[in-house]
Amino acid sequence: MVLPVFHGIFAGVGGVAYAGYFGGGSGGLTTVDKFAFVDDSRTTLGTGLSTGRYALAGMANSGTAGYFGGGRDSSPINVVDKFAFASDSRTILGTALSVSRYFLGAMANSGTAGYFGGGWSNTVDKYAFASDSRSTLSATLSVANARELSGMANSGTAGYFSGIYFPNQQTVNKFAFSDDSRSTLGTGLSNAVRANAAMANSGTAGYFGGGWDGSYRYNVVDKFAFSDDSRTSLSATLYGGRCQNAGMADSGVAGYFGGGNSSTDQTEKFAFSDDSRTVLGTGLSSARVWLAAMANTEGL
Q1: What is the sign, positive or negative, of the torsion defined by CA atoms of 232, 233, 235, 237?
Q2: CATH number at residue 37
Q3: Separation of first and last alpha carbons in the chain
Q4: Does 146 reside within a domain?
Q5: What gap in Å lies between CA 53 and CA 51, rounded to an integer?
Q6: 7 has pLDDT over 80
Q7: How far apart are alpha carbons 219 and 206 in whole angstroms?
Q8: 55 in a domain, yes or no?
Q9: Over the stretch 186-204, which tens digit does the pLDDT of each residue have?
Q10: pLDDT tens-digit series, residues 249-270
């Protein structure tokens, strides 16, 4: 008898439950919170990050494992933690980032490779998921000493980095997965900001939410259609100005922005069917900024 695959607590490759993860944050946290997509319930993993850190980045190979890389504890670090989705167990990659960095961004071509970019650098490191081996792209970010950025991806096609500082940028860099070449979109963010968050509905659109310009926190969520990279701004905004937050998504269903601002535990959910926003009844396990996120999603 063949059981149907459904979007539920037991759905997934090898019985893995589909979920999103928020890790680290201000104060040098090791905490990793897990949100089950079937009901948006939250648990906190028994094994957290290998070191307490903030200003890190996260990306995932859906169905297999998620990765949290870089960040800062007492100093910038180059560690990459890998969480196997089957058990939520953590290992540390033998090959670290090419340089110690924080305030970096990340995105992934699920099933193939993940990318960590920026962090007081314009370098982009690529991790092949088959072996977790690392290479460094010849194509770099368009901004020198890029930091406080975020990343999202249209798996199988291209990844995007934006919210780049220094100075504040409207720039959106696009990396084609076919050859890892970089282009810069003709239409950037609606505001010149840094420290925003990003997530994507792979195959349809990517979203950059929040950010700040050094004095003002934005509640705007910009949506980029993957068909032509055109930008619109959602009528549903973040609940108040938000920056230093993190984003992840259940592709095909909804995206989530968590934390940020002047340290909040709030987690907001945007339904991809109509881009409407709700606030989860259960937020992060603690209020925090400068956290990272990644997801094991059915939609890839």
Answers
A1: positive
A2: 2.120.10.80
A3: 25
A4: yes
A5: 6
A6: no
A7: 16
A8: yes
A9: 999 999 999 999 999 999 9
A10: 999 999 999 999 878 999 999 9
